[in-house]
Amino acid sequence: MQKDTKKAREFTSAEMGALAHLYRGEVYRSTIWRTRLDTTTNWSVVSLGAAFSISFSSPEASALPLLLVGLLTSTMMMLEARRYRYFNVWRARARYLEVHFYAPMLDDGDLHTEENWQKVLAEDYWRPDYHVSLLTAMGRRIRRNYLWILTVQMVAYIGKLVIHPTSATSLQQVIDRADTGPIPGEVILGIGIVYLLTFLTIARVTGHRDASRSAKRGSGRALG
After folding, report:
1. CB 224 within 8 A of CB 95
2. pTM of the model
3. Is 1 part of a structural domain of the chain?
């Protein structure tokens, strides 16, 4: 870690105690919001499980629930991305204190901190704002959880078309079974492919952006 060549600011006992309480508060808030993230993921998994139960309850059961649950899953993902932006504020602040305050003390037993780290953190308290965009938050949640949920949904839907009511003998038969009301199967399957590719693209683009941002950050001065 880069050391400040100037004399580091020495905190009084009262100030260090206040910083310790501040750190505890940020960890607590990040934990609460982390729990809220898990809640929306659980709702998505439970909803997909319910769609499984309905669609695979009998060979004659419709595959439509497996399509409709995609709308609910997308809604949960958007809600979770919004919650992640809040969670990331508290998480980043706690991590910033760990890197710039606690880690230097543990490293050599002396308080050598990077120059102006307090000002960066103070500015974040003076003018609080999200550290990541909604698109970045979506990408992170897709990579962590929703890509797997969406993949299972797609595989289940294709599997339903292939095996029910009897095993399909041709690709055209599978496409015909995808017909939903007046909408032909080709359109339904095309929408499904675009649906999945959209989430894959968001995950990939934001993943590269996060990696580039992390490489530029280097010393960990930035929040987010």
Report:
1. no
2. 0.83
3. no
